[in-house]
């Protein structure tokens, strides 16, 4: 089973989460006119607990990429913010009776981050080039907030056409 990623955009990614980017006009110009603020770009949502910021150092992956597993977080959203000017692969799927439906793959543009809405099936963090360093904002709190699904037959994600 093969998947080709597409360039990520707000319309295609809307049901899965938010794209964080400096598009459109800035909401404010701050810091003595030296900084444009693009305000409130992600819908962070947590059932309980609190938002935490962690750093993830992920290993670079290459195409073809084998998608063996997807995960979701039923009690909170999860935001991936690259800490370098690079693209990364994003894999999401609609829910199909408690397991991932047909996966969809996207490639971000440099300068974009993504926020998965609560309870959205998604792939792991997949940097396409070094350094693979990300800030991750997600729920910190008691209780299980991770479900994994392992595909009986993995998908293969090919390079963008």
Topology:
Elements: E1 2-3, E2 6-7, H1 10-13, E3 17-20, E4 28-30, E5 35-37, E6 50-57, E7 65-72, E8 78-82, E9 88-93, E10 95-96, E11 99-100, E12 104-107, E13 113-116, E14 121-122, E15 126-127, E16 133-140, E17 147-157
Parallel strand pairs: 1-17, 2-12
Antiparallel strand pairs: 3-13, 4-5, 6-16, 7-17, 8-13, 8-16, 9-12, 9-14, 9-15, 10-11
Q: Quick summary of this structure?
A:
The chain has one helix spanning 10-13; strands spanning 2-3, 6-7, 17-20, 28-30, 35-37, 50-57, 65-72, 78-82, 88-93, 95-96, 99-100, 104-107, 113-116, 121-122, 126-127, 133-140, 147-157. The chain is mainly β and 161 residues long.
Describe it for me?
The structure is a single chain. The protein has 161 residues and is an all-beta fold. It has one helix at residues 10-13; strands at 2-3, 6-7, 17-20, 28-30, 35-37, 50-57, 65-72, 78-82, 88-93, 95-96, 99-100, 104-107, 113-116, 121-122, 126-127, 133-140, 147-157. It has one domain: Jelly Rolls, CATH 2.60.120. Strands 2, 9, 12, 14 and 15 form a 5-stranded mixed sheet that branches. A hairpin with a 4-residue loop joins strand 4 (28-30) and strand 5. The protein is globular, with a radius of gyration of 16 Å. 29% of the residues are buried. The mean pLDDT is 96.
């Amino acid at each position: 089973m093969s998947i080709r990623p597409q360039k990520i955009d707000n319309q295609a990614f809307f049901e899965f989460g938010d794209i964080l980017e400096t598009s459109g006009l800035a909401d404010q110009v701050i810091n003595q006119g030296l900084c444009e603020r693009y305000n409130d770009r992600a819908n962070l949502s947590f059932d309980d607990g609190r938002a935490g910021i962690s750093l993830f150092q992920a290993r670079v992956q290459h195409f073809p990429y084998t998608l063996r597993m997807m995960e979701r977080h039923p009690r909170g959203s999860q935001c991936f913010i690259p800490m370098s000017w690079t693209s990364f692969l994003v894999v999401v799927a609609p829910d199909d009776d408690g397991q991932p439906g047909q996966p969809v793959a996207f490639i971000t543009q440099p300068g974009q981050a993504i926020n998965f809405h609560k309870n959205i099936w998604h792939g792991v963090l997949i940097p396409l080039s070094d350094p693979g360093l990300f800030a991750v904002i997600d729920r910190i709190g008691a209780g299980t907030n991770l479900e994994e699904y392992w595909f009986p037959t993995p998908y293969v994600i090919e390079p963008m056409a």
